[in-house]
């Protein structure tokens, strides 16, 4: 009797546990299926060279209707040969000698203002862009919704250069009475945090480093009876430079933040420096003539030419350490290059090629509708600019 009761107890206990075990099995099976499906999606995406960015583009641009080649007409603006452009997120900033405007992704004008700029220029930051008149006295900070700050009153002597870093710290270089030039650093809120007055040399350019604690200036002069560019690095809480480097027989074309380093682009090489002035890396151009440069987060894309003119070109991606990431020889005339994220766009007269940073071809657009400029975006899309409209290319 005891055995029969115990057996009966055991037999009656099993059915009570099976539903819980069955639910656990179904949950595990469902998770397994989801993992397999997700893995398959990722695998297929990488196999057709789209990658995760392809999925992101599918979600981000699901309301955009591109044509069979992936082009979508998004922005329309007045035809003006002085137009210059910048992307503020999904919105387009258009600046000419007489007007600046912000357009949204539906082509609607969100902001416009009449201006007078003899030599319009745009310095791109993180959330803002600085619109200024080279040699003039007009300076505007513009965001996605329009004008953020008019800083023209700080430019009475004439603007030599303006640069924004990713934190929207502004380095403003101007002529100043009693000095050859002056540089003022403004924080993201527009408050001045550092000023340097140059009395013995002209400062041609300046840039706040990514740490928001150091400023690099470029002044032009001589060293050992030869032309030279002098790079001075200042801590924003000190008056004297923490480091000075002289580049003999080199003309500095631009200063850029590259990773945690400062990238100096000259007519014959790229050179990177740390905040203490120590050399980070250097790359001397394989082809002697620099035709274009575009800097992404941790590399620079260079368009180099073997000759002063012609189409014997090479696109080279170089890291802050001076090491080559990838190269691509080109036998066609190039109108523009642009780097963003892990992509490099190369615009030809009748087509567009998008490469990854190692210069492997990623996508090609066969017809560009006579675009003259391209801005690559980190998600793998590219914006092509024509005479009176811009096209979004979605690979």
Task: Explain the overall architecture.
This protein is mainly beta and 395 residues long. It has a domain of 109 residues: 7 Propeller (Methylamine Dehydrogenase, Chain H), CATH 2.130.10.10. It is built from two helices and 32 strands. The strands form eight sheets. It has a four-stranded antiparallel sheet with strand order 1-32-31-30, with no helix packed on it. The chain has a four-stranded antiparallel sheet with strand order 2-3-4-5, with no helix packed on it. A hairpin with a 5-residue loop joins strand 30 and strand 31. Helix 1 crosses helix 2. The longest helix is centred in the N-terminal third of the chain and has 46 residues. The termini are far apart.
What would the keywords be for this entry?
Methylamine Dehydrogenase, Chain H, disordered N terminus, 395 residues, mainly beta
CATH architecture grouping of one domain: 7 Propeller
Please give the number of β-strands.
32
**CATH secondary-structure class of one domain:** Mainly Beta
CA-CA gap between termini: 78 Å
Low-confidence segments, ≥5 residues, pLDDT <50? 1-14, 44-50
Helices, by number, come to 2
What's the CATH H-level superfamily name of one domain? YVTN repeat-like/Quinoprotein amine dehydrogenase
Label the structural class.
Answer: mainly beta
The amount of helix comes to 10-25%
* Computed Rg: 27 Å
Average pLDDT level: 88
Outline of the structure:
The chain is mainly beta. It has two helices and 32 strands. The protein has a domain at 287-395: YVTN repeat-like/Quinoprotein amine dehydrogenase (Methylamine Dehydrogenase, Chain H, 7 Propeller), CATH 2.130.10.
